From TrEMBL:
Gene3D superfamilies: NADH Oxidase
Family: Belongs to the nitroreductase family.
Protein name: Nitroreductase
Domain Nitroreductase, first and last residues per copy: 13-192
CDD domains given in the database record: Nitro_FMN_reductase
Lineage summary: Bacteria, Bacillati, Actinomycetota, Actinomycetes, Mycobacteriales
Pfam hit, one: Nitroreductase
Organism: Mycobacterium palustre
Alphabetical keyword list: Oxidoreductase
GO terms, molecular function: oxidoreductase activity
Top-rank taxon: Bacteria
Length: 221
């Protein structure tokens, strides 16, 4: 596929057929994704390829607590898991909330789930001393994750970058033997999508790009 076509037609694919994702295709996906940029070319990402059904089911279960809070906050008109706005729903309401099966189905139905870890010993968190949530260390891993999804699309497969299970990171580490020095950055189910999207809906450039300042005039061609 042409690069721009891949960029414009790579959705969050959460439903998969029963088609397998062979090792040779997955190897090709990872082989191309590894060229994503990282700070200092330190390449701190590690990938755990999970095919075992029981392990995939366990990962799905580990995503449920965060999904319960997510859905409880949505039902309460909140922005879920927002670091600037603590939840207004209480713990008992969250615990009683049953997330839709579709939120955990990708882990159970995909032929393979990738657990993407990041070596914290090689990241540069330039914003670590600012009075806000640190985000810059994600630059060392998320371009790689996106490259995986782009490469998967090019091969006729698809997936979704999920982070719900990360709330239970200690249990993921115990399940998969992840060392303490690594963070779990994403859990990515991959498979053959039930539907291949040909067009995505996104805001036009003029709605999110401005000239010279945040409050500058809209940028346009």
């Amino acid at each position: 596929m042409e690069l721009y076509d891949v960029m414009r037609t790579t959705p969050a694919a959460r439903e998969y057929t029963d088609d397998p994702l062979p090792d040779d295709v997955l190897a090709r996906i990872l082989d191309n994704a590894r060229f994503a940029p990282t700070g200092g070319n330190r390449q701190g990402a590690r990938v755990i390829v999970v095919r075992d059904k029981g392990t995939r089911s366990a990962l799905a279960d580990l995503a449920l607590p965060a999904a319960r809070r997510y859905m409880a906050q949505v039902a309460n008109g909140e922005s879920p898991w927002n670091p600037l706005r603590p939840p207004r729903v209480d713990a008992s309401t969250i615990e009683a909330t049953e997330p839709p099966a579709a939120m955990s189905a990708p882990f159970r139905k995909a032929p393979v789930v990738l657990v993407i870890c990041l070596d914290l010993g090689v990241v540069a968190a330039i914003d670590q001393d600012l009075d806000r949530l640190s985000v810059t260390s994600g630059a060392s891993v998320y371009p790689f994750v996106w490259n995986i999804l782009l490469a998967a699309r090019n091969e006729g497969y698809g997936g979704v970058l999920t982070t719900m299970a990360v709330a239970e990171e200690p249990r993921i580490k115990g399940l998969l033997g992840v060392p303490d020095a690594y963070a779990v950055a994403a859990v990515v189910p991959l498979g053959k999508p039930v539907r291949q999207v040909t067009k995505l809906r996104r805001r036009p450039v003029a709605e999110f790009a401005t000239r010279e300042r945040f409050d500058g005039p809209p940028f346009g061609a």
